[in-house]
Amino acid sequence: MTVIVKTPPARKATTRLLWLDLTRKCQLACGHCYNSSGPSGSHGTMTREDWVGVLDQAAACGVRGVQFIGGEPTMHPDFTALVDHALNAGLEVEVYSNLVHVSQECWEIFQRKGLALATSYYSDRAETHNAMTGRRSHGRTRENIARAVRLGIPLRVGVVTGDEDQAAGARRDLEALGVERIGVDHVRPFGRGGQGRVPDTAKLCGRCGSGVAAIGPTGEVSPCVFSGWMGVGNVRHTPLAAILSGDAMTRATTAIQGAAGRNAPCGPDDEECTPGFPGSSCSPRN
Ligand code: SF4
């Protein structure tokens, strides 16, 4: 008897959002950081030309938006040049920054059309916020949130806490500053947030890799920023479109869907995991 094995149709590259995870360097060392970034983190092995190539390929293969993240993406030496390149390529850009230090050059590029900002906030109380970030960062982040609002830069803020009263206080404070887009989310069990536990596919939201993908500081592509250990190819030696539509990506997303359950909510608001370019509400810092 002949057994006919049906070959699944080739997966189309339907990725709409790419997280450009530029660096593991950050001024802070937040207790919940999903990729354990911090002051001793590195910018990885991707060169400026590598990142420019990724942006050009992304625009050519139908990606609509990119989110610059890390680590603290503004600390990457090529940050403003890459944002400029992305905007010029017609991509929507969101920058997820801790807003601790914003240079004049960054403020200028943040005001470009097509760019939006996102940040995390932990409490209206400085000592509580600082206990999470590991530095006295509350005043600077709060000041820069207010400045972004005054400048009319589109901004969304993710409040990360499991404490309802703390979330309510942070929300009131942000609303008083004029922030309109506020989400509340929990700590994800990855990186420092995992407190030493091995990353568990079942803890992902289940939609990773569906229309989204992340590229890390070494060029490794994964289904999302939280699933960095599930590498599916490297843009330094494989074209981006081939990785996004490749078998390894299909296997990874299928495994995630199987373990986590497709469409399982990953935040109390559910909307939190509609990952991220302008217009969405993902808070991948968490
Ligand atoms: S969560 Fe963000 S701000 Fe905090 S250490 Fe990680 S990258 Fe830096």
From TrEMBL:
<keyword id="KW-0949">S-adenosyl-L-methionine</keyword>
<feature type="domain" description="Radical SAM core">
    <location>
        <begin position="12"/>
        <end position="221"/>
    </location>
</feature>
<dbReference type="GO" id="GO:0051536">
    <property type="term" value="F:iron-sulfur cluster binding"/>
</dbReference>
<dbReference type="InterPro" id="IPR023885">
    <property type="entry name" value="4Fe4S-binding_SPASM_dom"/>
</dbReference>
<protein>
    <submittedName>
        <fullName>Radical SAM superfamily enzyme, MoaA/NifB/PqqE/SkfB family</fullName>
    </submittedName>
</protein>
<keyword id="KW-0408">Iron</keyword>
<dbReference type="Pfam" id="PF04055">
    <property type="entry name" value="Radical_SAM"/>
</dbReference>
<dbReference type="InterPro" id="IPR013785">
    <property type="entry name" value="Aldolase_TIM"/>
</dbReference>
<dbReference type="InterPro" id="IPR050377">
    <property type="entry name" value="Radical_SAM_PqqE_MftC-like"/>
</dbReference>
<keyword id="KW-0479">Metal-binding</keyword>
<dbReference type="InterPro" id="IPR007197">
    <property type="entry name" value="rSAM"/>
</dbReference>
<keyword id="KW-0411">Iron-sulfur</keyword>
<feature type="region of interest" description="Disordered">
    <location>
        <begin position="261"/>
        <end position="286"/>
    </location>
</feature>
<dbReference type="Pfam" id="PF13186">
    <property type="entry name" value="SPASM"/>
</dbReference>
<dbReference type="InterPro" id="IPR058240">
    <property type="entry name" value="rSAM_sf"/>
</dbReference>
<dbReference type="GO" id="GO:0046872">
    <property type="term" value="F:metal ion binding"/>
</dbReference>
<dbReference type="GO" id="GO:0003824">
    <property type="term" value="F:catalytic activity"/>
</dbReference>
